[in-house]
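Hypothesis: this fold can be encoded by more than one sequence.
Test: take the structure tokens below, design a sequence, compare later.
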């Protein structure tokens, strides 16, 4: 392709991708499939790699991550990131108002109220309208440079377009994980047998510091901004700053309000007390700021916090009610989760009858007894949690809850592995919720995507003894389906059509669908890409599994054990016989240059900007070859961190060139 053609194509693809992004993120609509979207994005990435001069700073490719940061650089904040004083009552707020009034010598003043978003604060630096740095709060004086991860957050603009943009400015805000995303993530974790994350705030904080920005992108963080620092004197009030941020298309929560006096502030606080629970993120209070920036300066700071702002913290909505009993749920992986049955109470807008108890340790920690009055709190989770016991109300003679030792579904004795919090039912192939759960996992969208099947139908098929494992789905005949209530020829054909269609699902989907513990979609994709077939994965030793990207000890052992279980192997063979994809069909990467023609490489160690398999692709795309070991024929040993000393010694002895990641990058630039 000619450079000017490439430029046009890059622009066309960028526009098209932005269009689909906008549909998806702003209007919750889709016009093309995920695969088609990924294909567009991949074409753009490839063109931009070949013609970096045409990559726009706000190209949609900048949002998808893919960079690996092994260690985040420490950056000093230009202005320290302070915290706020807290108040919990009307009286304390009135005292704050008194201090403000005295500090301003009786001049009149206005307040600006915002909700206090419960996330992780972030500092964003823009130079010439381009996002150059995103830094966490850290200890307030210095934080971590998490720019690559910040770029994946859709509503943080990468390039500012608009009028009167100062040459340099800093924006601060709160990065958070929306409640819906948090619930989805936890559901996904439960599905692959991982423990649930405790709360959205810590999850957002952990996500922002993940090494793989691709994973950060998938987790769809969000951000509200609430602060602009520029040297421009044309911004006299906080309100004006907020309006400017809005006009530059920053994401500002529309919940703010200017207040003339402390009474109006108290009204604002009362207004949002309940209503805030309907917002897409968690909030834990209100931040009250003096509107005039000149007056802010006049009031100044204490050692820790500004005198011109204060946080009012809402009391967490908590009520006590009677614990009537504990029920136990069994998931797909056999993990048992205890759930409290409560005397119904009305809490923060809904009636609560059940609350999560997490695991046996939690019940022991709370020393729970049936008949206790327990405190129930609603956080960001859909299911409220039990936070404590109202001890003075405890009945005399009550005894601690005995955790069950038999599966409530099938009666098998439960087991607990060392280091695990949960008890498991080991009756993998005979316990109904595990059987149904595995089939539900198998048909989900990210797996085989059989949307003609639903929970009810699976249950009915299982009851009739027609389906006990995913492979049984592929043996179903029209006659079988017609035995189900409510099915006629047309609906039966539709159901079978959906199952048939799933035979085309890509290998990574199959690998995820078969339900190896701890193997989520991302890990399945990495394994598929690295090993290329189910046979290679099944044959791999623990050490070989550990060499694959994203695979640590826990996952490696789980995969290894899975393929040493005869029942699992038989199931995989039946799926293969049914025509499912057991090999990666991903094409060899397309060639982009000849600069590495006739050159051979061994890649070893850990790299800053690439996964090892990505580097392999880059070598092949540029005409090079990958060899498995160091020998006299080898041209280059591409050495990352932590490379074994024996490889280096051998290469040195044989006179093989050892190059770093940076030298490799120079090499491919030609
Ligand atoms: S303004 C000088 N506004 O609360 C302090 N902070 O306790 C300027 N926060 O570190 C902060 N929502 O992470 C401000 N609307 C809001 C906020 C907010 C949440 C967090 C922020 C800050 C902490 C202070």
């Amino acid at each position: 392709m000619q450079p000017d053609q490439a430029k046009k194509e890059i622009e066309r693809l960028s526009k098209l991708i932005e269009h689909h992004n906008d549909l998806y993120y702003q209007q919750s609509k889709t016009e093309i499939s995920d695969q088609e979207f990924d294909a567009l994005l991949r074409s753009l990435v490839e063109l931009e790699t070949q013609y970096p001069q045409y990559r726009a700073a706000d190209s949609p490719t900048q949002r998808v991550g893919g960079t690996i940061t092994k260690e985040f650089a420490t950056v000093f904040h230009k202005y320290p990131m302070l915290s706020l004083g807290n108040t919990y009552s009307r009286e304390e707020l009135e005292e704050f108002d008194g201090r403000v009034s005295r500090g301003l010598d009786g001049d009149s003043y206005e307040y600006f109220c915002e909700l206090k978003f419960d996330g992780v604060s972030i500092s964003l630096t823009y130079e010439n309208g381009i996002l150059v740095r995103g830094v966490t709060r850290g200890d307030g004086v210095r934080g971590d440079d998490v720019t690559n991860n910040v770029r994946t957050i859709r509503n943080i603009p990468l390039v500012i377009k608009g009028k009167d943009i100062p040459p340099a400015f800093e924006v601060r805000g709160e990065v958070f994980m929306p409640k819906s995303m948090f619930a989805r993530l936890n559901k996904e974790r439960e599905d692959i047998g991982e423990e649930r994350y405790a709360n959205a705030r810590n999850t957002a904080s952990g996500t922002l510091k993940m090494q793989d920005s691709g994973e950060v992108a998938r987790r769809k963080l969000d951000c509200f901004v609430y602060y602009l620092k520029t040297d421009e004197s044309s911004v006299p009030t906080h309100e004006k700053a907020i309006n400017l941020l809005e006009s530059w298309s920053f994401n500002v929560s529309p919940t703010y309000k200017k207040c003339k006096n402390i009474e109006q502030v108290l009204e604002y606080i009362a207004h949002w007390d309940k209503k805030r629970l309907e917002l897409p993120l968690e909030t834990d209070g209100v931040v009250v700021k003096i509107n005039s920036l000149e007056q802010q300066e006049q009031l100044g700071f204490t050692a820790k916090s500004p005198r011109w702002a204060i946080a009012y913290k809402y009391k967490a909505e908590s009520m006590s009610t009677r614990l009537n009993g504990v029920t136990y749920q069994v998931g797909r992986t056999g993990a048992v989760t205890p759930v409290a049955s409560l005397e119904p109470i009305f809490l923060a807008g809904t009636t609560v009858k059940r609350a999560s108890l997490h695991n046996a340790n939690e019940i022991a920690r709370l020393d729970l007894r049936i008949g206790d009055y327990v405190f129930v709190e609603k956080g960001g989770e859909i299911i409220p949690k039990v936070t404590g016991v109202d001890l003075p109300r405890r009945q005399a003679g009550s005894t601690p809850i005995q955790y069950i030792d038999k599966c409530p579904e099938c009666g098998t004795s439960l087991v607990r592995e060392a280091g695990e919090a949960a008890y498991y039912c080991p009756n993998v192939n005979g316990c109904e919720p595990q059987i149904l759960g595995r089939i539900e996992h198998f048909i989900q969208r990210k797996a085989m995507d059989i949307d003609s099947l639903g929970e009810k139908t699976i249950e009915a098929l299982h009851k009739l003894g027609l389906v006990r494992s995913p492979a049984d789905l592929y043996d179903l005949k029209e006659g079988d389906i017609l035995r189900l209530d409510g099915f006629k020829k047309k609906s039966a054909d539709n159901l079978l059509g959906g199952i048939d269609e799933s035979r085309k699902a890509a290998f990574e989907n199959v690998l995820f669908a078969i339900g190896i513990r701890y193997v989520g979609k991302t890990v399945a994709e990495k394994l598929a890409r690295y090993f290329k077939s189910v046979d290679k994965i099944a044959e791999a030793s623990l050490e070989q599994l550990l060499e694959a990207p994203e695979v640590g000890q826990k996952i490696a052992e789980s995969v290894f054990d899975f393929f040493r279980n005869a029942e699992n192997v038989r199931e995989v063979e039946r799926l293969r016989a049914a025509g499912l994809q057991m090999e990666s069909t991903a094409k060899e990467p397309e060639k982009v240059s000849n600069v590495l023609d006739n050159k051979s490489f061994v890649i070893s160690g850990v790299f800053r900007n690439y996964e090892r398999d990505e580097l392999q692709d880059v070598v092949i795309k540029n005409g090079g070859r990958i060899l498995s070991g160091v020998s006299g024929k080898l041209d280059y040993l591409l050495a990352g961190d932590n490379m074994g000393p024996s490889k280096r010694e051998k290469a040195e002895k044989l006179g093989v060139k050892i190059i770093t990641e940076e030298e490799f990058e120079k090499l491919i630039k030609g």
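The chain has six domains: 3-63, 74-313, 318-393, 432-504, 507-577, 600-668. The mean pLDDT is 91.
Hypothesis status: open.
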